[in-house]
Automatic annotation (TrEMBL):
Originating organism: Anaerorhabdus furcosa
GO biological process, one term: quorum sensing
Residue ranges crossing the lipid bilayer per the database entry: 34-56, 68-87, 93-114, 135-153, 159-176
Keyword Transmembrane attached: yes
Protein name per Swiss-Prot or TrEMBL: Accessory gene regulator protein AgrB
Key word Protease present: yes
Highest taxon listed in the record's lineage: Bacteria
A GO cellular component entry from the record: membrane
Single GO MF annotation: peptidase activity
Keywords attached to this entry: Cell membrane, Hydrolase, Membrane, Protease, Quorum sensing, Transmembrane, Transmembrane helix
Length: 182
């Protein structure tokens, strides 16, 4: 693809590298989203799958956390997390007595430590503040939805809860890895 772009367009190497990186991200993120939607469809949980993608992806973008070292590993992790999410969603152990305290702990962890940085992708001071503001706004919004969803649909309540718990767990994993910049 790089040779095709170089042949057709007269751009420098850096611009081509940025363009290809963007295409790569769109392709692999799209593939991850599509696979989760297919799994959600197979589990008869399409709306839940869409909510999971929106909430989990938004949290991960701004909070950071553990990342796989390869694209295949990332794809596998994203799908395994979704499958475990679906299995957890149907677990009788996830009742409000367990769910509410775990969600509050996860929220506090995200609130206190986000964004967590990777040593190979450090954030500027401005990016840190923006991500912190965005994650805190997202947490406030999700907690309001969490409270509202208790009375509307317990499954939506669980989607918010599990995604917050997963995000905090991935943050803790990353903060205890050699790639944490803290």
């Amino acid at each position: 693809m790089k040779k095709l772009i170089e042949k057709r367009l007269n751009y420098d190497e850096d611009l081509i590298a940025i363009f290809l990186h963007g295409i790569n991200i769109i392709f692999y993120d799209g593939l991850g989203f599509l696979s989760v939607l297919i799994l959600a469809f197979l589990f008869n949980k399409l709306l839940i799958g869409i909510l999971y993608i929106i909430i989990f992806s938004n949290l991960r973008i701004h909070a950071g956390g553990f990342h796989a070292s390869t694209k295949l590993g990332c794809f596998a992790l994203y799908n395994l997390l979704f499958i475990s999410f679906i299995l957890t969603l149907n677990s009788p152990l996830l009742n409000p007595i367990i769910n509410i305290p775990l969600t509050m702990i996860a929220t506090l962890i995200i609130f206190k430590y986000a964004p967590v940085e990777h040593i190979y992708a450090p954030l500027t001071i401005i990016e840190k503040y923006r991500n912190k503001d965005k994650i805190r706004f997202s947490l406030l919004f999700l907690l309001i939805l969490y409270i509202i969803s208790v009375g509307i649909n317990f499954e939506y309540f669980k989607v918010i809860s599990i995604t917050l718990i997963y995000t905090s767990m991935l943050m803790i994993l990353h903060m205890n890895s050699k790639y944490y910049k803290g």
